[in-house]
Amino acid sequence: MDELRMNWYCLDMTLVPLGFLMSVSYHLWLWQKVKTQPHQTYVGLQFNLQRSWVLTIVKDNNKKDMLAVQSLRNALMGSILMASTSVVLSTGLAALLSSTYTIKKPLNTTIYGSRDEHVMAIKYLSLLTIFLFAFLCYSLSIRFFGQFGFLVNVPRGNDDNNPVTVEYVCGLLGKGFGLNTIGNRLFFVAMPLLFWIVGPVLVFLCYVFMMVILYNVDVVTDSARGEFMEKNCFTGAV
């Protein structure tokens, strides 16, 4: 029995860190790709399109002020929804951790993975930590969106004392969407860990499946990039 438990423990300590490192390595590669070759990723293209959108709003502010408010409202609703979800999940996990109920009892029929109490605590603490960081990112994203909403409609005259520049406003929007993206990616990293309650094999398979999906979502194909460039939507590197 002790040998079987050791085998389960080895699966937990091998497959789960391997899948997690796979996800972290992919996102580090994506971050480097966005910095060096933004036109080859949808994240980089999005940042450039956001800058073009801000320049358009500022140029014709009197006619497009409502468009800016409505677009910002949609972005805020998404961040608020995800922030609320993160809080709810974190609260539920914290309640489980503080409960005197032994969580491992319903899992006696689990095929793979250790059911030791310390391992179970690591599982829930890992999820709790990631969801709390996701909530922090969403909260900061809401803060920058709020600042952007106040400053995007500030008149741009010839007053040299006006500190609100177009670059500053673009930076606020970029930080807001950037933190929102980081929060979403933390959610993507945490979702496979939910299967860790069942066993590490499902966690590893879920990470592999998620990497395939994210790669097809994040990387711009040659045909799509050519069509994008022909329509003059790309305005330069970030």
Q: Layout of SSEs?
A:
Blueprint (H helix, E strand, L loop, with lengths): L1 H35 L5 H18 L1 H38 L18 H35 L14 H28 L6 H19 L3 H9 L8
Helix pairs in contact: 1-6, 2-3, 2-5, 3-4, 4-5, 5-6
Task: Provide structural commentary.
With 238 residues, the chain is an all-alpha fold. It has one domain. 76% of the residues lie in helices and 0% in strands. Helix 2 crosses helix 3 and helix 4 packs antiparallel against helix 5. The radius of gyration is 22 Å and the shape is elongated. Keywords: Membrane, Transmembrane, Transmembrane helix. InterPro entries: DUF599. This is DUF599 domain-containing protein. Pfam families: DUF599.
Task: Put the structure in a nutshell.
With 238 residues, the protein is mainly α. It has one domain. It has seven helices and no strands.
Largest sheet: none
Shape designation: elongated
The gyration radius over C-alpha positions equals 22 Å
Helix content percent band: over 70%
Number of domain modules: 1
Structure classification: mainly alpha
Low-confidence segments, ≥5 residues, pLDDT <50? 100-112, 232-238
Distance between the ends: 57 Å
Strand content: under 5%
Number of helices: 7
Query: What is the H-and-E element order?
Result: HHHHHHH
Overall residue-averaged pLDDT value: 75
In total, the number of strands is 0
Transmembrane segments: 7-29, 80-103, 124-145, 193-215
InterPro entries: DUF599 (IPR006747)
Protein name: DUF599 domain-containing protein
Pfam family, one: DUF599
